[in-house]
Design a protein that fits this description.
alpha/beta, Aldehyde Dehydrogenase, Chain A, domain 1, Aldehyde Dehydrogenase, Chain A, domain 2, 3 domains, seven-stranded mixed β-sheet, 18 helices, 30 strands
C-alpha cells in the first residue's frame, strides 16, 4: 500500500506482483495507480514542511532519537520480512540495524547545531573598514519536499539514511523504494507512521510505479536517486528537473576496486585480511551492493596465490535459505535480477575467463534452486586489463568479481581510475609510502578510500560500509553526488543565503552575536542569571588589572612555561617583542579571574573553549580589562528525570588594553542551569 496525504491508500489497478526471492511465493502486489502525485507533493510542502520548520534543530534531533528507539523495539519483526528479499541475517542486520543506527547518528548531531530552525554557515565576512557593514551566510530549510528514489538492495537503510538527513534539516520526504523489495520498506513505514513521532506530512510512501511524479516537481524540492547509472541519467534529464533547477543527487552503482599492496605478500596478516575482505564483499547481500568490490587489483606475482586462497574461501560459502542459521549467502532479489547477472557474466566471460563458480548446479541449504533466485559466487581473471577493458565498463550486480594484475603502483592507480569513478576503493597495505602514493594518485576518482591493514582491521567497518559521518557518493560513473557526510548532508536540503547589513542587524536576525554589534550592559553579573534570563548581546565589563613582571614570573613558576620571550629580555633581538611579554595563557587565566562571579549560582561549570587568539603582546605596565558578551545559547534536553535542566551559553571574552584595543579574544562555553524543568 501507499501512504499518501495522511492515509494508507491502495492503487486502483492490478499492480506488480512481488515474489519471495527464496521460494518464489507471492508476497504482495505493489500498486500506485490512481495516486495523485501532485497532491502528495503539495501535501508535503503545505503540511509537513511548515510543521518541521517550526521545530528547532534540537527538537528535530530529539525526534530522530525517539524514532530510532521506537524502531529498535520493533526491529525483530522486520527480519522475517527481510529474509524474503533473499537477505541473510547478517545482510538484514546491515540493512535494518544499520538504518536505525543512522537515525541515532544524525540525532546526535543536534548537539553541534543551534536551538533554532536555521544555522550559520561559515565565518563572518568583514565588508567595510570600520566594521559597520558585514556579511554572514545562513542556511534555512528548503520549502519543498525531498523525493527519494531508492534501490532494491537496502530497502530499510537506503530509506532511513536519507530521511534522517532531510528531517534533521527540516524538510519532509516522499519515499519511492524499488518495487521488488518495497514490502520491507512498507513494513517499516507503517511503524513510523503508527508511532506518531513525526509530524503529519513529514513522510509519505509510494509503492509501485512513480511514473509522472517528476512532472510535479518545483524548484524548492530535492531529488535523490540510488540505482543504476543509466536510470539515474534518464531521471536527471527530466524536463522538470532542468526547467525548475531541481537539485538532483545521484548515487549510482560503480565498479569499485580493492588493491593489494606489494608489501601484503602471501603468508602475511594483511594478505589474509585482503582475502577475507574481498570474500565478504562478494557474498554480502549476494553481491548486490553499490559498494561491492567488482575489480580485485593485485600484484601480478601474487595472482595464483590470491586465486587459490579466494577460491578456497568462496567454496566454503554456505548458500541457501537466509533464515537458516548455517547460511552465509542468500538469494538475489528475484529471478529477473538473476537473469540480468547471468547475462552480464556471459558478456564478461568472452574476454575474462571464469576461474571459480561456473557450475550451474548449486548445493543449497533448505532451498530449491528452481524456485529461488540463487547462484554461486563467480570469480573471473583478466590477464590483459589495459586491453580487455570490459572489466572496467560492465558490472554484474551480484556475487561477481574479477582478478586484475598490476606490475607497479602506477599501473594499479591507472587501473583503479579506469572504472571512470567509483563510490569506494580500498588498499590493503601496512606501508605508508604505498598508501600515500595510491591515495594521492587515485583519490580524484573515488568518493571514499579505505586504507586497511592489521592495525585497524579488528575495528574497521569494511570496504563496503558507508558511515553516517562520512560522505557517501563518488565522481563520474558513481553519479557525482554526496549523501550523509555528517553536517555536510543537511546542506543539500537547505538554502544558503548571504546576509549583508550592520553587525547589530545581523545579530538580531541570526541570534548569534557579531563583533561590533550593539550590546546591553548588565547591572547584575550574568553569572547570577539562569539560562532563560540571558539574552544574546548581554554584556558585562570587568574591573581592570595592571600586568607586572611579578605576574609573569609567578605564572611561569606555576605553569612551568619558561619560554625565553617571557623570561629573558636579553634574548629578544630579531623577534617581534620589545620586552618581556606576558604569557597568552596568563592573560586568558587572568581574564577568567576578572569576569567570573565566585559565588554559587546558575553557572554549573566551564564547558570548554571553542577558539582563542592572542592578537597583541601585553607587556608589564599595560592595563587590561574584559568585555564578557553572550554570543549564543544552545538548549540541552534532560537525560533523565533526575538530571538538572540546563543549557550551554557561548560567551565572547574580549580582553582589551588601556587603549581599547583587543589583546586576546576567546569564545568560551559554560553550562548554565535553567529556572524550570
Amino acid at each position: 500500500m501507499n501512504y499518501a496525504c495522511g492515509s494508507w491508500t491502495e492503487g486502483s489497478g492490478s499492480g506488480q506482483a512481488l515474489y519471495n526471492a527464496v521460494n518464489g511465493d507471492l508476497v504482495a502486489v505493489a500498486d500506485s495507480s490512481g495516486i495523485d502525485f501532485g497532491r502528495m507533493l503539495e501535501y508535503g510542502r503545505n503540511v509537513g514542511g511548515p510543521a518541521l520548520r517550526k521545530m528547532s534543530f534540537q527538537e528535530r534531533g530529539r525526534m530522530l532519537k525517539a524514532l530510532a528507539l521506537y524502531l529498535t523495539e520493533r526491529k525483530a519483526s522486520y527480519y522475517p520480512v527481510s529474509f524474503m528479499t533473499g537477505a541473510t541475517k547478517t545482510d538484514s542486520w546491515i540493512d535494518i540495524d544499520g538504518g536505525i543506527g543512522t537515525l541515532f547518528a544524525y540525532s546526535s548531531l543536534r548537539r553541534k547545531l543551534p536551538n533554532q530552525s536555521f544555522c550559520l554557515d561559515g565565518e563572518t565576512a568583514p565588508l567595510s573598514k570600520e566594521n559597520s557593514f558585514i556579511g554572514q551566510h545562513i542556511l534555512v530549510p528548503k520549502r519543498g519536499v525531498a523525493v527519494h528514489i531508492n534501490a532494491f538492495n537496502f530497502p530499510v537503510w537506503g530509506m532511513l539514511e536519507k530521511i534522517s538527513v532531510n528531517l534533521l534539516a527540516g524538510v519532509p520526504a516522499v519515499v519511492k523504494p524499488a518495487t521488488v523489495s518495497s514490502f520491507l520498506a512498507e513494513a517499516v513505514v507503517r511503524d513510523i507512521i503508527g508511532s506518531g513521532i513525526l509530524p503529519e506530512g513529514a513522510l509519505q510512501l509510494i509503492c509501485g510505479s512513480a511514473q509522472g511524479l517528476f512532472d510535479h516537481l518545483m524548484n524548492q524540492d530535492v531529488v535523490t536517486f540510488t540505482g543504476s547509472a543509466s536510470t539515474g541519467k534518464m531521471l536527471k534529464s527530466h524536463p522538470r528537473i532542468l526547467e525548475e533547477s531541481v537539485p538532483f543527487n545521484m548515487e549510482a552503482d560503480s565498479l569499485n576496486c580493492s588493491v593489494l599492496g606489494t608489501d601484503a605478500r602471501p603468508g602475511t596478516a594483511d594478505f589474509d585480511i585482503f582475502i577475507k575482505e574481498v570474500h565478504r564483499e562478494m557474498t554480502a547481500k549476494c553481491g548486490q551492493k553499490c559498494t561491492a568490490i567488482r575489480r580485485i587489483i593485485i600484484p601480478e606475482e601474487y595472482v595464483q596465490d590470491v586465486q587459490i586462497a579466494l577460491s578456497a574461501r568462496l567454496a566454503k560459502t554456505a548458500i541457501g535459505n537466509p533464515a537458516h542459521p548455517d547460511v552465509r549467502m542468500g538469494a538475489l532479489a528475484g529471478k529477473t535480477q538473476l537473469k540480468e547477472v547471468r547475462e552480464k557474466i556471459a558478456q564478461l566471460s568472452q574476454y575474462t575467463p571464469i576461474v571459480f563458480g561456473d557450475k550451474q548446479d548449486l548445493n543449497l541449504i533448505d532451498a530449491d534452486q528452481e524456485k529461488g533466485a540463487f547462484m554461486n559466487p563467480v570469480l573471473m581473471f583478466n590477464p590483459r586489463p589495459f586491453e580487455f577493458t570490459q572489466s572496467h565498463d560492465v558490472e554484474a550486480f551480484g556475487p561477481v568479481s574479477t582478478l586484475i594484475p598490476y606490475r607497479n603502483m602506477d599501473e594499479a592507480i591507472e587501473l583503479s581510475r579506469m572504472g571512470k569513478g567509483s563510490l569506494v576503493s580500498s588498499i590493503i597495505t601496512s606501508d605508508p609510502n604505498i598508501a600515500t602514493e595510491y591515495v594521492m594518485g587515485a583519490a580524484t576518482y573515488h568518493g571514499r578510500i579505505l586504507i586497511l591493514n592489521e592495525s585497524c582491521a579488528k575495528e574497521s567497518t569494511g570496504h563496503g560500509s558507508p558511515m553516517p559521518l562520512l560522505v557517501h557518493g563518488g565522481p563520474g560513473r558513481a553519479g557525482g553526488g554526496e549523501e550523509m557526510g555528517g553536517l555536510r548532508g543537511i546542506r543539500h536540503y537547505m538554502q544558503r543565503t548571504a546576509l549583508q547589513g550592520s553587525p547589530t542587524m545581523i545579530t538580531a536576525i541570526t541570534g548569534s552575536y557579531q563583533a561590533g554589534s550593539a550590546t546591553r550592559e548588565l547591572e547584575i553579573h550574568p553569572f547570577r542569571k539562569h539560562f532563560e534570563e540571558l539574552q544574546v548581546g548581554d554584556e558585562w565589563v570587568t574591573a581592570k588589572h595592571t600586568v607586572t613582571e611579578a605576574d609573569i614570573t609567578n605564572f611561569a613558576n606555576l605553569s612551568g612555561d619558561h619560554f625565553y620571550a617571557h623570561m629573558d629580555a636579553t634574548s629578544l633581538e630579531g623577534t617581534i617583542f620589545t620586552g618581556r611579554v606576558a604569557h597568552g595563557y596568563y592573560i586568558l587565566s587572568k581574564a577568567a579571574g576578572m569576569f567570573v562571579d565566585a559565588k554559587k549560582g546558575p553557572v554549573l561549570l566551564n564547558y570548554g573553549i571553542d577558539e582563542c587568539r592572542f592578537v597583541k603582546p601585553v607587556y608589564p605596565g599595560m592595563t587590561i580589562g574584559v568585555r564578557l558578551i553572550v554570543k549564543e545559547k544552545i538548549d540541552q534536553e534532560k537525560r533523565s528525570e533526575e538530571d538538572v535542566a540546563k543549557g550551554i551559553v557561548k560567551w565572547v571574552v574580549d580582553v582589551r588594553d588601556e587603549t581599547g584595543e583587543s589583546v586576546a579574544i576567546a569564545s568560551i562555553l559554560t553550562m548554565v542551569k535553567k529556572l524550570q524543568g
